[in-house]
Amino acid sequence: MFRILIVLAVALLPALGHAQDKLPYPQHYTVLTNDFADILSPEAEAAINAELSAARARSGREMTVVTIRSREDYLPSADIVSFSKALFNGWGIGNSEKNDGLLLLVAIDDREIRIALGAGYPARQDGVAARIIQTQIVPAFREGRIADGILAGTRAALSQIRHPSDAEPTLSVVPTGAQDIQQRPVAKPEGVVQNVLAFMGDHPLGAAFLAALTALAGFFGGRYVQRYRPRKCPQCGNVMLRLGQAQEDQYLEHGQLVEERVKSKDYGVWFCTNDEHVTVIGYPVLFSKKAACPQCNYHTYETERFVKTPATTSSEGVAQLNHSCHNCHHKATETVSIPRVTESSNSRSSFSSGGSSSSSFGGGSSSGGGASGSW
Ligand SMILES: [Zn+2]
Ligand SMILES: [Zn+2]
Fold first, then answer.
1. Distance, CA 324 to ligand 2 centroid (Å)?
2. Residue 206 reports pLDDT greater than 80
3. For residue 19, how many other CB atoms are within 10 A of its CB?
4. Residue 260: inside a domain, yes or no?
5. Residue at 329 is within a domain
6. Whole domain around residue 315: which residue ranges?
């Protein structure tokens, strides 16, 4: 019996050792920008840090920016939401009483973005975070300008996401109802959404409704309106007909059809019955993980990531990225290093100690609020 136990123990040891090498999330080396993915130039990092430091000096608000290669470099997490929440609470970002911390997390190889909010933010700020991701971060990321997107997202988060303890600037425009909304041009659905939200925010039940509504409206409502509004023929001015899925394919190029098949883009095809003019418009699909192919430029480029050697507390790991294009079949392989896992005491005490020390956070927590995006 004893011998069996020893055999079992020996067999299990490597597995245990392995599990202990990985942590749920990385440990911070600064309270400003933790660029674990190593994608920011020193200049970009300095610019982002300047924003973060200014906010700390101005209002004491702690925001931190984190880049990682992939969540797979750490212990398994269900999604970016649970990963960022664990990191947020593990680090203790924000003031422990106000819970006003902010986290901008980017997982480069996973193509995931998360703005996580401290527990002190009202739910409606989730919608603000969602809008910042869609308008400030995703467009820049889609063009490969990661540092620009992070900087713009950081600025927007610090200036637009409001905590109840912020000095409330009096709103100069108070929406009065339907009349005000109807005067808005139809082409600006976001303005309408904002008015409705501001209106509802004054009502007690409104707030709970707001996060979901804003996220839905911002993500899909605006896109839907954009997508299905009647279009006029640029040649004759007639209202054009939007073709159905079956009819539109003949007007799409091979690469565009592949984009639709791999669900990275949707295409709408409008047809003028008067002069047979055709307008093709492509819409990026949210949460698509397909990048633009460096060879054919269609959003049909897929990356698979394999951890060849996991990172440990003593050495860097190695991951292999296999890129392949569903359209032109261009292939490329890339080896990237996984940053060394920083030694962890797994205790909150080192982060929640108060004071204004620049090397620790204030001990704030998050209950999972915020917004996610992908590019
Ligand atoms: Zn026409
Ligand atoms: Zn290609």
1. 8
2. no
3. 9
4. yes
5. yes
6. 241-338
Neighbours of ion ligand 1 (CB under 5 A): 233, 235-236, 238, 272, 274-275, 277
pLDDT digits (tens, 9 = 90+) for 320-367: 989 999 999 999 998 888 877 765 444 333 443 333 335 788 888 898
Is 333 domain-assigned? Answer: yes
**246 C-alpha to center of ligand 1: Å?**
22
The rounded Å distance from CA 255 to ligand 1 centre is 26
Ligand 1 centre and the CA of 277: distance in Å? 5
State in Å: Cα 294 to ligand 2 middle.
Answer: 7
CA of 293 to the centre of ligand 2 (A): 5
What is the 284 CA–ligand 2 centroid distance (Å)? Answer: 17
Determine the distance separating the centroid of ligand 2 and the alpha carbon of 161, expressed in angstroms. 39
What is the 80 CA–ligand 2 centroid distance (Å)?
A: 28
With left for phi above 0 and alpha for psi between -120 and 50, is residue 370 left, alpha or beta? left
In tens, the pLDDT along 83-116 reads 999 999 999 999 988 999 999 999 999 999 999 9
Q: How many domains, the chain?
A: 1
pLDDT confidence of residue 370? 92
The pLDDT of residue 356: 37
The model's pLDDT over 14-47, given as tens digits with 9 standing for 90+, comes to 444 444 467 889 888 889 999 999 999 999 999 9
Rounded CA-CA distance 230/176 in Å is 29
> Quick one: DSSP state of residue 240?
P
Asked if 370 contacts 80 with a C-beta cutoff of 8 angstroms, the reply is: no
> Would you say residue 296 lies in a domain?
yes
What distance in angstroms lies between residue 328's CA and the mean position of ligand 2's atoms? 4
Q: How far is CA 367 from CA 12, 84, 88, 116, 206, in A?
A: 36, 11, 9, 9, 20
Please state, for a pLDDT cut of 70, what percent of the chain lies above it.
Answer: 74
Specify burial of residue 76 (Cβ count, 10 A radius: 0-12, 13-18, 19+). Answer: exposed
pTM of structure: 0.53
